[in-house]
């Protein structure tokens, strides 16, 4: 490419024979030796990438006279050999000279040669720009590089910057700057004031326009290969995929697997576009219906933590990355810890079962309020004092009953069990930017901590960490490390965090939450489902205390008896209703029902299609969220 550019400049400007640049000097030497001008030299250089021209050596003429021809042959043969030696010697001398010249160019810091050296960069730079594709598990490209071109100028060769700029502006149109800006690039200078040897005029140009510019044969202007990073599915999984900018990769797979992608490797994901589309659609609908500020969710395989879908809404289009706010670009599943509320209660129950503090048959006398240190903690609804077993406590999501279970374990042992689940640490997911959340050590507990930590207050977790914890509850008690690139699949099972027996008991309890408790709107005909609702107050950052906004969620897995997939749905600051059973559980039902059907998971119970429909969760038009709270 550099050779072609220099050829055009030489062919069009006979006044540059005496410049100090190496290629022009060689051309002058050739013309003196062979009696040919620069056009001949340029022509020879134009064949540089093709076959070399063979120059026949002089062989002498045969005598037409037969009589003395034999006597003359030895002399002519000697002359031919002398000429051959002379030519070989001259070629060797030229090669040595050119080698020395190349060495000089490679080490000198003289600006005269920097321009020449810079002309060799475009092809290498274009090759460096090739980038591997990001591909979904159903073989759809999520990020890919498309053929394009960049327009490169050699300013010291451009004779008419203004006229050339006008021609380029007309061809490039909206894909480049106006003529005045192009002219400035065509006239770019080095620090010493000399015209530069390399300037990028325009990038990511369509192949058709690049071909048109190449055919114009503009002196000092060339076309180099380039690539455009494209995201064929627009807003789909935008935060998970990330974006390739002009300077670097931003977030997601693009940043995490930047080195692999830069080397041309394809990065296949566990994400499935059909499941992803369903997840995003349902989250958008839920946020719209309940006037939520935003929403997020994920679908995970419980066996090994493979992420099949991950979404944050509202989203953005990576093809228009610069137009998206930082808030939209952030993958909040990883970066935004929150108080999990009641979705944390199953971990308190699992800890108590592992410690032997309770069994699945243990019962507690549960009032609707309990004093803890200097405060009173209430259940979400007023009720008479009643006897509940451990399963009933989860099914009714009783704050008071959960605190009683935690007191039976003891704060120190409970704290150790919480840490053993991995809370307070990163999950190790193969994406950057994960927050650890905040889990106070037992030494940091106050007198009231035993009353708020067991019910998911006074701690923060990311949605990713919560999902990983539920995977362990579901899969028999083994820790999972979530992953989204297939190359990051675990080679062996994770460590054990609870026993298979405890896992089985908790699965049964969480199935009861859906069958008979607060999660009844998450039921899926034909399948057993286990899960937990969550309604957590948000801390007002200015006041430093709980405010009037809530995070509403539901997390669960199915089939409950042999879990395959896990789904988490979170709606932030819903206005029409705040309870997870109303806002998030139906959304979970839609996504999990689709996932089970999509992956052809066999039903594990008789269809419930003839069962009476669940109560209508839609509040009255004039209802306020405070009406649903005590």
Description:
- With 630 residues, the chain is an alpha+beta fold.
- It has 24 helices and 16 strands.
- Strands 1, 2, 3, 4 and 7 form a 5-stranded mixed sheet that branches.
- A hairpin with a 2-residue loop joins strand 11 (369-372) and strand 12.
- Helix 2 packs across helix 3, helix 13 runs antiparallel to helix 24 (585-598) and helix 16 (345-355) crosses helix 19 (411-420).
- The N and C termini lie far apart (75 Å).
- Residues 1-79, 99-128 and 612-630 have low confidence and may be disordered.
Strand and helix layout:
Blueprint: H1 2-12, H2 22-34, H3 38-46, H4 69-107, H5 111-118, H6 121-129, E1 134-135, E2 141-153, H7 161-172, H8 179-186, E3 199-205, H9 207-216, E4 221-230, H10 238-241, E5 243-244, E6 249-250, H11 252-256, H12 258-262, E7 267-268, H13 273-289, E8 294-301, E9 307-313, H14 326-329, H15 332-335, H16 345-355, E10 363-366, E11 369-372, E12 375-378, E13 386-389, H17 390-395, H18 399-409, H19 411-420, H20 449-452, H21 463-474, H22 500-516, E14 530-540, E15 545-558, E16 565-572, H23 580-583, H24 585-598
Parallel strand pairs: 1-7
Antiparallel strand pairs: 1-2, 2-3, 2-4, 5-6, 8-9, 8-16, 10-13, 11-12, 14-15, 15-16
Helix pairs in contact: 1-3, 2-3, 7-8, 13-24, 16-18, 16-19, 16-22
């Amino acid at each position: 490419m550099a050779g072609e550019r220099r050829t055009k400049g030489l062919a069009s400007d006979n006044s540059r024979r005496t410049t100090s640049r190496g290629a022009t000097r060689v051309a002058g030497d050739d013309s003196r030796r062979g009696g040919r001008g620069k056009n001949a030299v340029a022509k020879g250089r134009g064949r540089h990438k093709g076959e070399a021209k063979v120059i026949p050596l002089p062989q002498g003429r045969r005598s037409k006279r037969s009589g003395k021809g034999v006597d003359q042959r030895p002399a002519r043969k000697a002359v031919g050999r002398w000429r051959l030696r002379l030519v070989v010697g001259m070629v060797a001398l030229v090669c040595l000279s050119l080698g020395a010249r190349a060495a000089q160019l490679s080490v000198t810091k003289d600006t005269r040669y920097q321009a020449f050296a810079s002309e060799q960069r475009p092809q290498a730079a274009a090759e460096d720009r090739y980038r591997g594709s990001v591909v979904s598990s159903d073989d759809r490209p999520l990020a890919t590089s498309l053929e394009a071109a960049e327009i490169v100028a050699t300013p010291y060769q451009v004779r008419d910057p203004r006229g050339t700029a006008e021609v380029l502006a007309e061809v490039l149109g909206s894909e480049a700057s106006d003529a005045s800006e192009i002219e400035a690039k065509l006239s770019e200078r080095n620090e010493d004031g000399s015209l530069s040897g390399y300037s990028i005029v325009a990038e990511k140009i369509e192949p058709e326009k690049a071909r048109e510019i190449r055919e114009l044969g503009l002196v000092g202007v060339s076309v180099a290969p380039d690539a455009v990073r494209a995201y064929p599915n627009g807003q789909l999984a935008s935060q998970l995929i990330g974006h390739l900018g002009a300077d670097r990769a931003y977030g997601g797979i693009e940043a995490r697997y930047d080195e692999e992608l830069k080397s041309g490797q394809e990065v296949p994901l566990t994400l499935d576009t059909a499941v992803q589309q369903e997840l995003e659609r349902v989250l958008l609908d839920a946020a719209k219906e309940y006037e939520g500020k935003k929403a997020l969710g994920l679908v995970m395989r419980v066996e090994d933590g493979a992420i099949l879908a991950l979404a944050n809404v509202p989203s953005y289009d990576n093809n228009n990355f610069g137009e998206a706010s930082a808030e939209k670009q952030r993958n909040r599943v990883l970066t935004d810890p929150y108080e999990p509320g009641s979705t944390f209660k199953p971990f308190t129950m699992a800890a108590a079962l592992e410690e032997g503090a309770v069994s699945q048959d243990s019962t507690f006398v549960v009032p609707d309020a309990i004093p803890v240190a200097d405060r009173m903690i209430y259940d979400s609804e007023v009720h008479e004092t009643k006897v509940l077993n451990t399963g009933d406590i989860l099914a009714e999501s009783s704050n008071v009953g959960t605190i009683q279970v935690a007191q039976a374990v003891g704060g120190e042992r409970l704290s150790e069990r919480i840490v053993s689940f991995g809370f307070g640490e990163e999950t190790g997911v193969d994406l950057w930017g994960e927050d650890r959340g905040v889990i106070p050590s037992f030494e940091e507990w106050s007198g009231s901590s035993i009353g708020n930590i067991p019910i998911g207050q006074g701690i923060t977790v990311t949605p990713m960490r919560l999902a990983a914890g539920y995977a362990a509850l579901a899969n028999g008690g083994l820790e999972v490390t979530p992953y989204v690139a297939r190359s990051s699949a675990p080679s062996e099972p994770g460590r054990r965090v609870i026993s298979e027996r405890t896992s089985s008991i908790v699965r049964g309890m969480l199935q009861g939450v859906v069958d008979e408790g607060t999660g009844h709107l998450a039921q899926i005909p034909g399948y057993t489902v286990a899960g937990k609702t969550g309604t957590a107050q948000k801390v007002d950052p200015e006041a430093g205390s709980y405010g009037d906004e809530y995070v509403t969620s539901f997390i669960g897995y199915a089939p409950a008896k042999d879990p395959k997939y896990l789904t988490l749905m979170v709606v932030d600051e819903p206005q029409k209703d705040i309870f997870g059973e109303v806002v998030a559980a139906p959304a979970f039902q839609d996504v999990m029902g689709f996932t089970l059907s999509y992956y052809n998971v066999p039903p594990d119970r008789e269809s419930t299609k003839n069962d009476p429909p669940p109560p209508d969760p839609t509040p009255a038009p004039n209802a306020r969220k405070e009406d649903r709270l005590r």
